[in-house]
Structure formats: structure tokens, C-alpha cells
């Protein structure tokens, strides 16, 4: 008995050791990898690694204990007649192992014999319940429109709910920026935010310095879709279908698009090296000075709300 | 009563066992490689033959048809002979079966990396191989029924019922799903289009799981488990109930792979309802297995074979409970297209198929080699490292699937999508690293097993022909006692049994598929949807060749989170010219249903040459070779003709102008790229891919903008 326990302990140690080994391998792999893990990198990885390992250890441990515990069930002393079955045996409507001989069928297949146990009542119960569930499910979705919504109705509902929530939210945070009221921003804070967005979203096509690559040069005076800040805002917001400019309204908010448009206007005339050839019509630069007015205040409150 | 002497054929069992081990290792190695590619694009090894899209089907096919397939034949050939008290019907057929099957596997291993694929999941092999599979499958069935008919055992044991159901259903599934029109030796178009193709494919795909990965293994469980544990099978009546309900209900559940798609609502609901009803019949097998172990759990602790069986059966029970849960609409809305599904199938494949196979190998090899297993210790090590492997695989994948599924759906308060697709990809990369560690552990265990088995084989000597004897069956027989039970009559009549199981299996498929084919209203036509131009069609074939569908869906479900991200949800009428359908089942990358016009040609060019220039952090393989390889347009005429035969309305005589149109369209694209300072000749494959991508989903986009 003692030996057995010792043996178990040893095995547990081997497990622990192998998991530690695995984790160290894992971090080596992470170092070797060249890709970007995003903002979550090391801390997230470590926390996750620990949690996953603990989870797995617990499962393996339980499995091990179960196998150990189950082996005791079979103790001949514990085998009782039908009348003296354990609660578990009664619960699962199992016959007593002692009475098994009565249930043996009189045929064997390559030495395999079968018992004439009935299908367990709880099994039948589970089966019937699932059938009832299936029938109710069918009725729920197909019998009446007032019960379950089929997918398109569900979709319409989603859109309506979202619209309501969005309107309520925008009402709460105050004014929102769109193409009708967007103003050129000159605040360093906004331009920095605009620059960050530009690097993250726009640089792959328009180049880090705005000189143009897949997308047009944004630093010259030529504009395909208008060069006023409201035009740039609109181009960002709705994109240009068919020409490859993405519509950003689904992933950027009004403030962000205004910051972006302002930043783009701010890099006009920077003359980056080897720019893309001019596209579109030339626009005379009108003096478009940023004014600090009520919108700017509203903008700030929106910015705070969005944080 | 005359006792007859005969011999069991163990050599064929041994051969299948070796094939099982060899292809098990190969399949798992390829699996490990694709797993690493999912966080380290460099693991695509810089050439087209080992890029993810091409070798992911190699992994799935190797595991399903080579590893599990050979294991089934191993298990069936050993047990069937003993349950029928008869040698296999014909040694010639046995050998044709064995070598034919291995040749098919080799053909698959060559054609898939070459990009010769139909793109339909688990049915990727092209038409000549499909025909070969059919022929070899018939050989298997012929050999099996020959053996059953000349049996010396009055009744067919439950294992044989499952073998019969496996044989007939896989035959039906394979033939119906492989209806395709060849246009050259290794290229064909699916006979079905769009929604219908999807329905047929997932009727096949789901039931390939049922009748290739489940029923034969249940049959084997009914033989090897009671043999190994030396206990009576728990309940004969439960066997009958769960066998018939399982095969009847399973076949209906296919549409649960297509929830929230353009498949008609009624078909989706049938799929869900029948999936729920499947819980009990599936669990019938698990209950009968686990309760057979009752009274022998002490043996489970000591014998690795039983440990593998116990965990295998438990994994089966878990996977078959999870399956119906995943088919509930609200769960499916999160889980579909994510790693959750990958976790689910691997609990089944690694736990149920893998562990049952290992248990059978450990039990069977020492017996046919008349020796003891080389090392019980190593087998125990295999069990524990395999179990750890499954957990290290499954837990991170569940986590990853759940994380990504929720991130896709998350909105900001201002009503905008919170994450871009790439954000969600980066978030789960580390979990993919864990998954590959799990896979490595599991593979390590398998290698240890192969070593152990080879040592066992070399220590013993194969009893190629094992002596046995049994009395022949008497012709006049009157059932008495237990044998007069109603089901026993069926067990005496293999042919009736076979016909009955076909009928039971066909009902579900017929009810779901026929209306979709016959009733027009199920797929509404959209007038603005036009056939692909020859260049787009060629691009589509390249998209198929590169296995893009393995990572990119073309199915926008009607969820706000998807229509905001990808555009208008998909309509059944948009797919009417899609032979085959390319809806996909996993979104490792974003949906491409409405990719057309989203980016300029130059973006696509740069992105295909090196995805990370346009999407920093992307894990997509690079496709520079597409810019170097010229299109092979010699059979464009045949393609147009084939499509017309399948019902695509190209006008009469169009095939003559097709090449001209193709070249003209290619020229516009290369000119457009030239204006962006990108030099590429118009006959390169990349041009065709760009043409196809720019077309995707635009038929409806154009109508909408025209309406505006």
C-alpha cells in the first residue's frame, strides 16, 4: 500500500516536471517567433500559460484519481445482492454484479457474451426528452412568428436594437462629428492622435509619409475626391467603392475621422521623397484655419466619453 | 455435426496495422506542420507545395482515410473473421483491398500538394481517385459480405451490424457527393451548385464523421472492449436501440454545419432538431461501453489497453454531447468559423479514433505475434503523454475559439465594430503555439507506440494463418429461447439487414435534399447575378487549387457584426453559378464574399506577393509564385462548355470567344497595375486571382449602388 502511494507521488512529480519543461520550451518558441503578438504579449501569455497548465493539471489529476478510485469499486467484498445495491447503482438502475449470471444470454461470439439488461430508464428518459425538445424547437421557430424569430427577422431586430442603443448613446454624449460639421483641427493632441491612426490604418497603402503607394499621394495639391477637410472626411468615412478605398465608418468614430482628416491636411506640402505621381485635380489651398468654437468643446467631451 | 478446420488470415491484419502506424505518423506530422504555419508563416517553407491551403487537406485526408481508414480495416479484418468463424472470403480480394487503398493514399499524397483538388472538405480528391475509391470500397464490401455469408456463426454480432451500416452508407455518401463533371484528367466541376452543393457536401461531411469515424469504431468497440476486459457486454437491447436510432438520426443532422447561411430555414431547423435527438443514441454506445467495464475497473488501472479504451469512449461521449450543443443556434453563432470547431473534431479524432486505435494495436499485435507486449511501461507513458497532448491541444483551442468568436461580435457603445479582423487573429496566435505543443506531445506518444509495437513484432513471430475450427451451420434451423427474439431473425439475414439499413439511412437524406433540388422557391434567383467571365473562372480555379477556402469563407451570415464588417449578408441566389460552392467552414482570415472592389488591384498584388506588407501581422502564406507562373488557358473552352452543361447560361458559341475575352480582361488589369508602377505580364496567374477577387460579391453591390 505504502509502495503504491510512493509510486503515485513519483508519477505526479514527473508530470509537474514535464509541464515546467513544456512551458520553458514555449517561451523559447515565443522568442524565436518573428511575428507581432499585439498588445497582449508577454504578461498575457504568461498568465494564460499558467491558467491553462493548471487547468490541464487538474483534469489529468482528476483522471488519475478517478482511475484509482474506480479500481476499488470492484472489491469483491463490496459486491452486494440486488436488494443491497449502493445508492449510485440504484440511481443508475444497475443490477448487482452478484446477480449478473441471471442476465447472461445463452449465446457467445468468439467468447463475447451479452447481458439481457433492459435499456436503462434514465437513458430512455433522456431520449424522449430530446425528442420532445426537437419537436418544440420546430414549433417554436416555424409555427408562429410571435415565438422564435427565424434568422432574417432576428437580424432585423438586431439592427433596430443597435440603432436605438446607438442613438441613445450619442444623445447622451452630446454632439457627434460628421461631414456637415467637421472642422479642421490644429490642436497638437488631435494631430498626434490623427498621426497614430494614420500609421495604423492608412500607411500600408498611402505610405508612412503620405507619399502614396497603392493609394494616392496625400501630400500634393491634387485630389481625386476633393481636398477640403469635409471632402477628406467623407472619403475616409464612406470610402470609394470600386477603387479600393475602404469605408472606415464601421471602425472609426467621427472624432477619429476628423483627427485623421486634419492630420492628412497637415502633411500637405511636405514633399516626401519619390512620391507617387499626382492624381486628380489641383486644388488651390484656401486658408482653412481652425477655430476654437463650441464644436471643439463638444469634440473634447466626445473624446472623453469614448475613452 | 461435422467440425470444420480453417485458418484465420492474420497477415492482412498485420499489413493494415503497419499501414495504420505509418500513415498515423505521417498524418500527425503534417498536422503539426500546418499547426505551426498558423502562427509562423515561414513554416510554409517558401514553396507552393507545402503552403497551408494545399497541405491542410493532406493532413485531414491522411488522418481520416489513411490512419483511421487503415485502422478500420485492421480492426474489421481481425474481428470479422472471428465473429463469423470463417477466413476472409477471398485472399485475393483482401490483397486488392489493401494495396488498392494504399495506392489511393499515395495518389492523394501526390495530388493534394500539387493543388489538384475539388475543394470539397474530406472529399478533395479528384475524379479518377474518386472512382478508384468506389472500386476499392466495393472490393471491401464484397469481401466482407462474402465472409458474412459463409459464416459458421448463426447470428451476426452487434459489431457486424455497425460494419454493414458503415459499408453501405459510406458508399452512398461518397457516390452522391462525388458527382462531378470532368474537364481534364485531374480537374472537374461539382455537379451541384451553391446552396445545393453546400447541402450535399455537409450531408456528406457530417456523415463521413458518422459512418467513417464513428460507426466502424463502435463496431470495433463492441468486439475489442469485451475481449480485452473479459466482461459481458452490458445490454443487448441497448445495442439494438442505439444502433438503429443512431443510423436513422445521424443522416439528418448535416445542415447544422450550415446554420445562419443561405440554406432554407426549414432545412436548418431539421438539422438542429435531429442533432439534439442524436444525443441519446450516441450515448447509448458510450453507456454500453463504460458499463461493460463495470466490475473490472481494477483491470483498467493496470492495463494500458483498457485505459486507452476508457478515455477513448469518454472522449466519444464528450464529443457527441458537444456536437448537439454546437448545433443550437445561439451557440453556433459564436462557435462556427472559429477554433472551437477545430477543438471539437480533435477531441473526437485524437480521443476517440486515436485512443481506440492505439488500444486495439496494443491488444492485437501481441496476439497475432504470439508474444507479450514489449513494454507495458512505455504503453503507460504513451497513454499519459497522449492524454496530456489532447488536453494541451483542446483547451487552448476552446479558449481561442471562444475569444475570437466573441471579439468578432463586439461593438463599441457608439455602435462600431470594436476590433478589426487582424486584431482578433493576433489575439489568438499564442494559443496556436500551445496547440502545436499539444500536437507534439500526442505525436511523441505515437512514435513511442510505434517503437513499442515494432519491438513486439521483432520479438515474436507472425502467425500468418491461425488455425481454428467450428462446426458448419445446419440448414434446417428452428430458433428457440433467446434466438426467437424478434431482432434475432434479422441477425440471421445479412442481405435483409443491409437493405433495411440502406432504407433507414436514405430517408433523412432524401427528405432534406429532394425539396432543395425540386422546389424552385428554395433558391430565389437574382437577375443581376451573372456567370463568371473566363478570366474570373480561371482565377476561381486557382483559388480552389491554392485551398484559399481552407481559411476564407464566402458566406456572410445575417448578423449585424458580419454585415457591418463584410457587407450585405449572402443570398442563396448569388451562388447559382458556383460549381463547387466555396462557403468554407473556418475563418482563419476574413470572409471574402464581398471582397470585390474593396481594395485596388495593386493592393491585392502586393498582398499576394507578401501579405505582411499590406496587413502587418497577418499569418497568410505568401504567394509570389503566382506572379511568376503563366496561366494554363488551354482548356478554357472545355471549362465554358462544362459549365454550360451544368446549367450556367453562357451563350451559344461563347467558348470560341472565351480566350479572347480572358486575354482582354487580363490586359486591363495588368495595364492598371502598370499605371501603379507594378510590372507584371498579363498572362500570369496572379492576374486571374485578382480578377476573381475583384468580382466577388459585386453582382449585388452594383445593383445597390445603381439603385442609389
Name the structural class of chain A: mainly alpha
Low-pLDDT residue spans of chain B: none
Count of helices of chain A? 9
- Give the number of DSSP strands of chain A: 4
Q: Structural class from helices and strands of chain B? A: mainly alpha
Shape of chain A: elongated
What CATH architecture of the largest domain in chain A would you give? Orthogonal Bundle
CATH topology of the largest domain in chain A: Cytochrome Bc1 Complex, Chain D, domain 2
Output mean pLDDT of chain A: 75
The CATH homologous superfamily of the largest domain in chain B: Cytochrome c oxidase-like, subunit I domain
Number of structural domains of chain A? 3
CATH fold-type name of the largest domain in chain B: Cytochrome C Oxidase, Chain A
How would you state the average pLDDT of chain B, rounded? 94
Q: Tell me the span between the first and last alpha carbons of chain B.
A: 89 Å
Rg of chain A (CA only): 35 Å
Low-confidence blocks of residues of chain A: 1-6, 19-40, 286-307
Second rung of CATH, namely the architecture of the largest domain in chain B = Up-down Bundle
Please summarize the sheet with the most strands of chain A: 2 strands, antiparallel
**Gyration radius of chain B, to the nearest Å?**
26 Å
Can you describe this structure?
The complex is a heterodimer of chains A (307) and B (708). By secondary structure, chain A is mainly α. Chain A has 3 domains: 2-73; 82-115, no CATH class; 188-306, Cytochrome c-like domain (Cytochrome Bc1 Complex, Chain D, domain 2, Orthogonal Bundle). Chain A contains 9 helices and 4 strands. Chain A has helices at residues 2-32, 41-73, 87-91, 121-142, 151-173, 188-206, 229-238, 254-266, 294-306; strands at residues 104-109, 112-115, 222-223, 281-282. In chain A, the strands form 2 sheets. Chain A has a two-stranded antiparallel sheet with strand order 1-2. Chain A has a two-stranded antiparallel sheet with strand order 3-4. The longest helix of chain A is centred in the N-terminal third of the chain and has 33 residues, at 41-73. The two termini of chain A are 63 Å apart. Chain B has 708 residues and is mainly alpha-helical. Chain B is built from 25 helices and 4 strands. In chain B, the strands form 2 sheets. A two-stranded antiparallel sheet of chain B has the order 1-4. In chain B, a hairpin with a 2-residue loop joins strand 2 and strand 3. In chain B, helix 1 (11-37) packs antiparallel against helix 15, helix 2 (52-84) runs antiparallel to helix 3 (91-111) and helix 5 runs antiparallel to helix 6.
Amino acid at each position: 500500500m505504502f509502495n503504491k502511494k510512493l509510486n503515485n507521488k513519483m508519477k505526479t512529480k514527473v508530470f509537474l516536471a514535464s509541464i515546467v519543461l513544456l512551458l520553458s520550451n514555449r517561451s523559447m518558441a515565443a522568442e524565436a517567433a518573428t511575428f507581432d503578438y499585439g498588445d497582449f504579449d508577454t504578461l498575457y501569455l504568461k498568465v494564460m500559460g499558467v491558467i491553462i497548465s493548471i487547468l490541464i493539471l487538474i483534469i489529468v489529476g482528476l483522471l488519475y484519481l478517478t482511475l484509482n478510485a474506480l479500481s476499488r469499486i470492484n472489491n469483491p467484498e463490496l459486491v452486494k445482492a440486488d436488494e443491497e445495491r449502493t445508492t449510485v447503482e440504484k440511481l443508475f438502475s444497475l443490477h448487482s454484479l452478484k446477480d449478473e449470471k441471471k442476465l447472461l444470454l445463452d449465446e457467445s461470439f468468439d467468447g463475447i457474451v451479452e447481458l439481457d439488461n433492459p435499456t436503462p430508464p434514465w437513458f430512455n428518459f433522456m431520449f424522449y426528452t430530446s425528442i420532445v425538445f426537437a419537436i418544440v424547437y420546430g414549433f417554436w421557430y416555424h409555427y408562429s412568428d410571435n415565438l422564435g424569430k427565424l434568422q432574417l427577422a432576428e437580424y432585423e431586430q438586431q439592427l433596430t436594437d443597435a440603432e436605438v442603443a446607438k442613438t441613445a448613446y450619442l444623445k447622451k454624449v452630446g454632439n457627434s462629428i460628421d461631414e456637415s460639421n467637421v472642422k479642421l483641427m490644429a490642436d497638437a493632441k488631435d494631430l498626434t492622435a490623427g498621426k497614430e491612426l494614420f500609421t495604423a490604418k492608412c500607411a500600408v497603402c498611402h505610405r508612412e509619409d503620405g507619399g502614396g503607394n497603392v493609394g494616392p499621394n496625400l501630400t500634393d495639391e491634387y485630389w481625386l475626391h476633393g481636398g477640403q477637410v469635409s471632402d477628406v472626411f467623407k472619403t475616409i468615412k464612406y470610402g470609394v467603392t470600386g477603387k479600393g478605398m475602404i469605408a472606415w465608418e464601421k471602425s472609426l468614430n467621427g472624432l477619429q475621422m476628423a483627427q485623421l482628416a486634419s492630420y492628412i491636411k497637415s502633411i500637405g506640402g511636405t514633399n516626401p521623397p519619390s512620391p507617387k505621381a499626382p492624381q486628380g485635380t489641383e486644388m488651390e489651398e484656401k486658408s482653412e484655419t481652425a477655430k476654437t468654437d463650441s464644436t471643439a468643446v463638444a469634440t473634447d467631451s466626445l473624446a472623453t466619453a469614448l475613452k | 455435426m461435422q467440425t470444420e478446420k480453417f485458418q484465420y488470415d492474420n497477415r492482412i491484419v498485420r499489413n493494415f496495422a503497419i499501414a495504420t502506424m505509418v500513415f498515423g505518423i505521417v498524418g500527425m506530422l503534417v498536422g503539426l506542420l500546418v499547426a505551426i504555419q498558423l502562427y509562423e508563416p515561414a513554416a510554409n517553407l517558401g514553396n507552393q507545395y507545402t503552403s497551408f491551403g494545399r497541405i491542410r487537406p493532406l493532413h485531414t485526408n491522411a488522418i481520416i482515410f489513411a490512419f483511421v481508414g487503415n485502422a478500420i480495416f485492421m480492426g474489421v479484418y481481425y474481428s470479422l473473421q472471428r465473429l463469423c468463424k470463417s477466413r476472409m472470403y477471398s485472399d485475393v480480394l483482401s490483397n486488392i483491398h489493401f494495396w488498392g487503398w494504399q495506392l489511393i493514399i499515395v495518389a492523394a499524397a501526390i495530388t493534394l500538394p500539387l493543388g489538384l483538388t475539388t475543394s470539397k472538405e474530406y472529399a478533395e480528391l479528384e475524379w479518377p481517385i474518386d472512382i478508384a475509391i468506389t472500386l476499392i470500397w466495393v472490393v471491401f464490401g464484397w469481401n466482407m459480405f462474402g465472409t458474412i455469408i459463409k459464416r459458421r456463426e448463426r447470428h451476426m454480432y452487434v459489431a457486424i451490424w455497425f460494419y454493414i451500416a458503415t459499408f453501405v452508407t459510406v458508399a452512398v455518401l461518397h457516390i452522391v457527393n462525388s458527382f462531378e463533371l470532368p474537364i481534364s484528367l485531374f480537374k472537374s466541376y461539382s455537379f451541384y451548385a451553391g446552396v445545393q452543393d453546400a447541402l450535399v457536401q455537409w450531408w456528406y461531411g457530417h456523415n463521413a464523421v458518422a459512418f467513417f469515424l464513428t460507426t466502424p469504431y463502435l463496431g470495433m468497440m463492441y468486439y475489442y472492449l469485451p475481449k480485452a476486459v473479459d466482461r459481458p457486454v452490458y445490454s443487448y437491447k441497448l445495442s439494438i436501440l442505439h444502433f438503429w436510432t443512431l443510423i436513422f438520426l445521424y443522416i439528418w443532422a448535416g445542415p447544422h454545419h450550415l446554420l445562419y447561411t443561405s440554406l432554407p430555414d426549414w432545412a436548418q431547423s431539421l438539422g438542429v432538431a435531429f442533432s439534439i435527438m442524436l444525443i441519446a443514441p450516441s450515448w447509448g454506445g458510450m453507456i454500453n461501453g463504460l458499463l461493460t467495464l463495470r466490475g473490472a475497473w481494477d483491470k483498467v488501472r493496470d492495463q494500458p489497453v483498457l485505459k486507452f479504451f476508457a478515455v477513448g469512449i469518454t472522449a466519444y461521449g464528450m464529443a457527441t454531447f458537444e456536437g448537439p450543443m454546437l448545433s443550437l443556434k445561439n451557440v453556433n453563432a459564436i462557435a462556427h468559423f472559429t477554433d472551437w470547431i477545430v477543438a471539437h473534431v480533435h477531441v473526437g479524432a485524437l480521443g476517440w479514433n486515436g485512443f481506440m486505435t492505439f488500444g486495439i494495436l496494443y491488444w492485437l499485435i501481441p496476439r497475432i505475434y504470439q508474444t507479450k507486449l514489449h513494454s507495458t511501461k512505455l504503453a503507460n507513458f504513451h497513454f499519459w503523454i497522449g492524454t496530456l497532448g489532447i488536453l494541451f491541444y483542446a483547451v487552448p483551442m476552446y479558449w481561442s475559439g471562444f475569444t475570437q468568436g466573441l471579439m468578432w461580435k463586439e461593438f463599441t457603445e457608439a455602435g462600431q465594430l470594436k476590433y478589426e479582423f487582424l486584431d482578433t487573429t493576433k489575439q489568438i496566435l499564442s494559443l496556436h503555439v500551445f496547440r502545436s505543443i499539444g500536437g507534439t506531445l500526442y505525436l511523441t506518444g505515437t512514435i513511442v507506440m510505434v517503437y513499442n509495437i515494432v519491438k513486439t513484432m521483432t520479438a515474436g513471430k507472425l502467425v500468418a494463418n491461425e488455425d481454428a475450427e467450428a462446426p458448419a451451420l445446419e440448414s434446417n434451423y428452428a430458433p428457440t429461447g433467446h434466438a426467437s427474439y424478434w431482432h434475432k431473425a434479422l441477425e440471421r439475414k445479412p442481405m435483409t439487414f443491409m437493405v433495411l439499413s440502406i432504407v433507414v439511412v436514405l430517408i433523412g437524406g432524401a427528405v432534406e435534399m429532394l425539396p432543395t433540388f425540386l422546389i424552385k422557391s428554395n433558391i430565389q434567383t437574382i437577375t443581376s447575378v451573372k456567370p463568371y467571365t473566363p478570366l474570373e473562372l480561371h482565377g476561381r480555379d486557382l483559388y480552389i487549387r491554392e485551398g484559399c477556402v481552407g481559411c476564407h469563407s464566402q458566406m456572410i451570415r445575417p448578423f449585424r457584426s458580419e454585415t457591418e464588417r463584410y457587407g450585405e449578408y449572402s443570398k442563396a441566389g448569388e451562388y447559382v453559378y458556383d460549381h463547387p460552392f466555396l462557403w468554407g467552414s473556418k475563418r482563419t482570415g476574413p470572409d471574402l464574399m464581398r471582397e470585390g472592389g474593396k481594395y485596388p488591384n495593386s493592393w491585392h498584388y502586393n498582398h499576394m506577393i507578401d501579405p505582411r506588407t499590406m496587413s502587418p501581422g497577418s499569418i497568410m502564406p505568401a504567394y509570389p509564385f503566382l506572379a511568376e507562373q503563366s496561366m494554363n488557358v488551354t482548356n478554357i473552352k472545355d471549362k465554358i462548355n462544362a459549365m454550360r452543361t451544368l446549367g450556367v447560361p453562357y451563350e451559344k458559341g461563347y467558348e470560341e470567344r472565351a480566350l479572347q475575352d480572358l486575354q482582354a480582361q487580363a490586359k486591363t488589369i495588368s495595364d492598371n497595375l502598370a499605371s501603379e508602377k507594378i510590372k507584371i505580364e498579363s498572362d500570369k496567374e496572379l492576374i486571374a486571382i485578382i480578377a476573381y477577387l475583384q468580382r466577388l460579391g459585386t453582382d449585388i453591390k452594383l445593383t445597390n449602388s445603381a439603385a442609389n
